[in-house]
């Protein structure tokens, strides 16, 4: 057939069959362009009336063409929503017959007698097709005619994907037409199954699968779409109508069909049974649960737990029954009917056997979910009863027990309605003995459903009848017993070393620990099981496991649960932890010998934070469950036990107050001492053991503050033994070096007696240990700097030795720098960069310690202050002559003197190796530290040279950002003294920024900002920060004295920054700069200003005359104010955005500052504001705002900001952009 669709994307030759062949089959010689043309043609044809008519003709055709039918089904699905709105009942039934007849022919016949096919006739407005789709109707075969053709037809092997697509199409129609139309949909589906009974088995299975797919797609399109926000209100109402009709008319027959399918296929065709079970699982959530609480259903589900191919899906169905949302009384009756308390032991035994054999992981997860849900339901019932007995009766009878969200009315009542069994008779829920059904198969291979007698049935009916009143407290013993039984089987499952099982059960364990139902013996069992999971099996041989993210996360999660258990049961957790740690400290033999542990722990006492004593139970076999072969793993090694014990002690440390370590008799203090003094832990060759050991020492570092006599032993372990900073494992060594630096930072006040030995040892390590990485050396050098800096006091007495050590260390590093810089090989660049970084971290450590010990150097321009020498009379004159006198301690002065000389070497080396990016980066880090280390007298010499050279060397915009950041720190550190440096360097910085590119607003409308544009804005953000910092320290005159070209460039960028719409920081910063410059240059008519000597020395802003003010004011009025007002009134400026409210405040502050100018400077601004706002808000409002603006002093108040914002909102309605 050849059609021309109403679309420009027509396939050449307009050949539909050829288009299908090209688009959906592989053919040599067909280009990608040709295939795309075919696909476009088919997509365009699908949306037209001709495409719809063609689809119906294809469906009604006798000849089966698979791809043609597939396209036709998709086309019908596309048109069904529109057709449902335009056709009547008769046309809908005719459409249904036409669509459903296909599946009869598909399964039951190759051909249908032509006499049984209705002849085509013209389509009218009342027929299947809407008037918009006028044309000829395709042939339609009625369902009755198709059924009559099945008797003598040859059966066809089904093509599953085509039947699945047809099922999707029928369900799409069901969603639009049912239940008012297409009323026979489910009757025909079940009749299809009945008629297939006489056919071959594979055809019967195909028909069954087709009907199952119908219900699967109904769940997908109608039921499981609650979270889809795109559904219209009308569609949600339609879906609910379909669900209600199915509950009333269809679901009882469906459950019977599902039961027969499972009964027939669970052994013969397990794949089909799994599909059916998956559908049952989804329907349990919203259908009447009474339909599944029959002896047949429950026995069948329990029996399928023994069938390997379907047991996982059967377990999920049982889990869905358990977690069904119900009222408490109905929930208890459901749990009784399922008899889960008796069934869980055998289910868990099946799971454990599967875990030992390495079997189905899905079944193991399903069992874990089932047992978890059983425990959750009993826990919810228990807490409900406890709350009721405690007087919390407000609405408790309406509480739902279940895992999901709030239930519908049908769900709430489903547990108390009469049960409809598979044969249609009424029955009540009753108890089922699952022990028989788990193994109950008769001699014929059928399932044994006669596990209960009539007497027991009657008794269970009496027991399980829902009470007429509220859920009574008298059931607490039954619920408590069920909860204890369920929790008792959670622990064996939790002991299985399977990540999925642990992740499934941990939320239950956490909730159970928080509940009042937890018993002490259960808490002890839970603690032992959780501790077993913190042992990383095999880590001694494969240390990479220790660093895996999933191992770290799961271990952290388990330790969080253990800390939660500590808060509720400290008398269980603390003794357990103590015995575990003491066993680890005592050595390998004690792990297997509880008597040895008793000897080690004899007399140990732990105290809670409230002071209550808890004696250790040393005879407890802490490792009784570790390495259980039934848990799915072999026994852990001694090193793995020790590492887990040390990590246990480390994690528990998050919850205790470290002040208790002050008492040497405290249990934690004694544990730390036992671990520190253990001779067995250092003997292990496992690197992660040593890491956990030093992690514990770092966590409990305050122990060494209170017990300084233990510090030498800690230092010995860190520096002298091969498992400390010299550890052979690269990752562990890096972490230990960091921990050493942190310990030095914490204990630096206690390390004064050991400084000489530590520094000597570190120098030896750094000079001999060639395998240390540069990162390791940086950590050690920073620790050395911290240690040396902490020894300085505010006087010279007693510090000469420390000064000599510091000088020796720095000179050694500087000598190493000069040595590696002599080479000409390119590979030396990295060594040069590393040596410069060592100087940087040394300066960082020295500066931090000196600032804490001797006071920090004051920021600002101290050399310009005549009173700055009062506190430095004791400093050596040679030092003062080199570095100035702005220091509060001898250590600072000595450090500055040494680095003053070293900085010259660093500049020389960087000049030689400037081509290396790593050298430039290390030099930047070095000067960042020098800004805070050297006085301004030194930085005044080196900063211009360094910055000027770097501007020549740099290759990328990020380097300019880094340089501007260093310069900003220098400005804030030096204050007004930076003016000469600023006047010489700022023009160069502006020119370099201009080379990157000027700011522009053309890209604001783009959704994605390019990387180059982002780097450019980072440059200008930092450049404007430098200008803002300069104005803040009083250097506005330097800004205004820039060369005309540089000043114009800066002003142009300020005005452009104000207009940026997608930036929050740059516009606000630009306004602040303009405001501060305006405020700094106005003379206010007061000659001399404040008249300070320093201002006169450096050219105070108060000395600027009215001519300069006039030029600046004209610039602000003619350009600045108009740009600001244009942005505020622009429709793209969101007045409701909170961050824009800050911009409005800065704009108002600029207007207020300009309004307060000298003489008649405020008159032009008032005129501009009046001309702008009076046509928009009225003359009175504009005049009132100007008067209020003139009356503002100090700051732009919040009231004025809101008034300005409201005026802008009103003006926005009439504003027309130029």
Automatic annotation (TrEMBL):
One GO BP: tRNA re-export from nucleus
Highest taxon of the lineage: Eukaryota
Keywords of the record: Cytoplasm, Nucleus, RNA-binding, Transport, tRNA-binding
Subcellular localization: Cytoplasm; Nucleus
Key word Cytoplasm present: yes
GO cellular component, one term: cytoplasm
Positions of the UniProt region annotated as Disordered: 411-439
Listed Pfam families: Exportin-T (PF19282), Xpo1 (PF08389)
An example Gene Ontology molecular-function term: tRNA binding
Main subcellular localisation: cytoplasm
SUPFAM superfamilies (UniProt xref): ARM repeat
Role this protein plays: tRNA nucleus export receptor which facilitates tRNA translocation across the nuclear pore complex.
Record-given protein name: Exportin-T
Species assigned in the record: Trypanosoma congolense (strain IL3000)
UniProt lineage: Eukaryota, Discoba, Euglenozoa, Kinetoplastea, Metakinetoplastina
């Amino acid at each position: 057939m050849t059609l021309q669709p109403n679309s420009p994307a027509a396939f050449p030759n307009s050949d539909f069959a050829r288009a299908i062949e090209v688009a959906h089959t592989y053919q040599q010689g067909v280009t990608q362009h040709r295939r795309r043309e075919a696909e476009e043609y088919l997509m365009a044809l699908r949306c037209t009336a001709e495409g719809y008519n063609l689809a119906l003709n294809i469906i009604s055709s006798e000849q089966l063409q698979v791809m043609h039918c597939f396209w036709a089904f998709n086309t019908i699905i596309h048109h069904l929503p529109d057709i449902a709105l335009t056709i009547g009942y008769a046309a809908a039934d005719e459409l249904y017959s036409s669509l459903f007849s296909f599946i009869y022919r598909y399964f039951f016949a190759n051909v249908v007698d032509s006499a049984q096919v209705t002849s085509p006739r013209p389509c009218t407005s009342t027929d299947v097709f809407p008037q918009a789709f006028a044309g000829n109707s395709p042939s339609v075969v009625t369902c009755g005619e198709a059924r009559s053709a099945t008797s003598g037809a040859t059966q066809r092997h089904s093509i599953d994907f085509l039947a699945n697509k047809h099922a999707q199409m029928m369900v799409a129609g069901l969603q639009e037409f049912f239940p008012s139309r297409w009323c026979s949909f489910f009757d025909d589906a079940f009749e299809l199954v009945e008629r297939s009974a006489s056919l071959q088995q594979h055809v019967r299975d195909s028909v069954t699968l087709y009907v199952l797919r119908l219900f699967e797609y109904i769940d997908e399109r109608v039921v499981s779409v609650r979270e889809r926000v795109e559904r219209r209100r009308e569609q949600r109402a339609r879906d609910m109508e379909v669900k209600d009709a199915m509950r009333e008319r269809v679901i009882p027959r469906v459950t019977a069909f599902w039961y027969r399918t499972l009964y027939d296929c669970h052994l013969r065709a397990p794949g089909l049974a799994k599909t059916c079970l998956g559908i049952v699982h989804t329907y349990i959530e919203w259908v009447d649960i009474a339909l599944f609480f029959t002896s047949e259903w429950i026995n069948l589900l329990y029996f399928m737990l023994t069938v390997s191919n379907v047991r996982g899906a059967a377990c999920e169905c049982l889990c869905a029954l358990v977690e069904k949302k119900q009222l408490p009384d109905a929930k208890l009756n459901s749990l009784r009917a399922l008899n889960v308390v008796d069934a869980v032991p055998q289910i868990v035994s099946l799971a454990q056997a599967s875990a030992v054999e390495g079997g189905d992981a899905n079944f193991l997860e399903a069992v874990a979910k089932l047992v978890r849900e059983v425990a959750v339901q009993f826990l919810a019932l228990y807490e409900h009863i406890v709350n009721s007995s405690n007087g919390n009766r407000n609405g408790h009878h309406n509480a739902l027990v279940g895992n999901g969200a709030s239930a519908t009315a049908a769900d709430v009542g489903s547990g108390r309605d009469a049960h409809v069994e598979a044969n249609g008779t009424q029955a009540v829920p009753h108890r089922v003995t699952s022990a028989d059904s788990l193994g109950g198969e008769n001699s014929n291979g059928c399932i044994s459903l006669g596990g209960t007698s009539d007497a027991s049935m009657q008794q269970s009916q009496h027991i399980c009848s829902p009470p007429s009143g509220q859920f009574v407290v008298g059931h607490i013993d039954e619920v408590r017993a069920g909860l204890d039984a369920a929790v008792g089987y959670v622990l064996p499952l939790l002991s299985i070393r399977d990540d999925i099982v642990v992740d499934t059960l941990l939320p239950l364990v956490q909730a159970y620990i928080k509940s009042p139902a937890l018993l002490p013996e259960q808490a002890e069992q839970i603690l032992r099981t959780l501790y077993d999971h913190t042992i990383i099996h095999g880590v001694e041989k494969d240390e990479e496991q220790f660093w895996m993210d999933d191992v770290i996360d799961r271990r952290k999660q388990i330790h969080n649960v253990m800390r939660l258990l500590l808060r509720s049961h400290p008398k269980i957790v603390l003794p357990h932890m103590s015995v575990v740690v003491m066993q680890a400290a005592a050595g390998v033999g004690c792990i297997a010998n509880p008597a040895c542990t008793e000897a080690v722990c004899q007399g140990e006492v732990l105290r809670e934070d409230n002071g209550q004593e808890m004696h250790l139970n040393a005879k407890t076999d802490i490792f009784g469950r570790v390495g259980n072969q039934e848990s799915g793993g072999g026994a852990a090694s001694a090193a793995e036990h020790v590492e887990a014990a040390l990590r246990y002690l480390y994690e528990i440390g998050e919850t205790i107050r470290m002040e208790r370590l002050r008492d040497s008799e405290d249990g934690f203090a004694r544990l730390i001492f036992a671990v520190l003094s253990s001779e067995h832990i250092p003997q292990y060759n496992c690197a992660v053991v040593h890491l956990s050991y030093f992690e514990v020492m770092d966590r409990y570092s305050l122990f060494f503050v209170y017990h300084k006599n233990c510090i030498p032993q800690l230092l010995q372990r860190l520096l002298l033994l091969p498992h400390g900073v010299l550890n052979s494992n690269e990752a562990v060594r890096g972490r230990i070096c960091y921990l050493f630096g942190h310990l030095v930072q914490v204990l630096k006040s206690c390390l004064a007696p050991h400084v000489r030995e530590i520094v000597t040892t570190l120098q030896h390590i750094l000079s001999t240990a060639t395998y240390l990485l540069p990162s390791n050396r940086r950590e050690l050098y920073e620790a050395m700097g911290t240690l040396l800096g902490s020894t300085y006091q505010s006087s010279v007495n007693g510090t000469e030795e420390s000064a000599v050590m510091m000088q020796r260390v720095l000179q050694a590093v500087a000598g190493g720098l000069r040595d590696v810089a002599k080479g000409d090989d390119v590979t030396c660049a990295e060594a040069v960069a590393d040596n410069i970084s060592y100087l940087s971290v040394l300066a960082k450590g020295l500066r931090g310690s000196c600032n804490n010990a001797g006071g920090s150097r004051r920021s600002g321009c101290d050399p310009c202050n005549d009173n700055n020498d009062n506190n430095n009379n004791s400093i050596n004159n040679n030092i003062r002559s080199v570095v100035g006198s702005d220091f509060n301690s001898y250590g600072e002065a000595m450090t500055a003197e040494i680095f003053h000389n070293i900085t010259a070497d660093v500049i020389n080396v960087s000049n030689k190796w400037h081509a290396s990016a790593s050298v430039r980066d290390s030099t930047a880090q070095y000067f960042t530290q020098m800004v805070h280390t050297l006085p301004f007298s030194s930085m005044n010499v080196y900063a211009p040279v360094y910055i000027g050279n770097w501007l020549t060397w740099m290759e990328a915009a990020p380097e300019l950002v880094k340089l501007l950041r260093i310069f900003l720190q220098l400005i804030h550190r030096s204050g007004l003294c930076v003016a000469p440096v600023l006047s010489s360097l700022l023009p160069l910085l502006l020119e370099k920024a201009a080379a990157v590119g000027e700011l522009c607003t053309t890209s604001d409308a783009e959704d994605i900002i390019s990387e180059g544009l982002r780097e450019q804005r980072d440059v200008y953000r930092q450049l404007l920060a430098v200008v803002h910092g300069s104005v803040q320290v009083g250097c506005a005159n330097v800004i205004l004295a820039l060369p005309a070209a540089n000043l114009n460039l800066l002003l142009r960028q300020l005005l452009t920054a104000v207009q940026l719409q997608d930036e929050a920081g740059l516009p606000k910063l630009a306004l602040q700069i303009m405001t501060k410059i305006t405020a700094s240059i106005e003379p206010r008519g007061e000659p001399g200003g404040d008249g300070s000597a320093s201002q006169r020395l450096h050219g105070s802003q108060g000395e600027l005359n009215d001519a300069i003010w006039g030029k600046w004011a004209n610039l602000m009025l003619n350009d600045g104010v108009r740009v600001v007002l244009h942005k505020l009134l622009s429709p793209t400026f969101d007045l409701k955005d909170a961050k824009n409210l800050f911009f409005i405040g800065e704009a108002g502050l600029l207007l207020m500052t300009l309004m307060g100018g000298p003489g008649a400077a405020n008159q032009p601004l008032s005129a501009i504001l009046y001309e702008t706002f009076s046509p928009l808000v009225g003359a009175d409002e504009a005049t009132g705002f100007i008067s209020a603006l003139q009356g503002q002093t100090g700051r732009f108040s919040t009231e004025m900001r809101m008034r300005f914002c409201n005026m802008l909102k009103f003006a926005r309605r009439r504003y027309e952009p130029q």
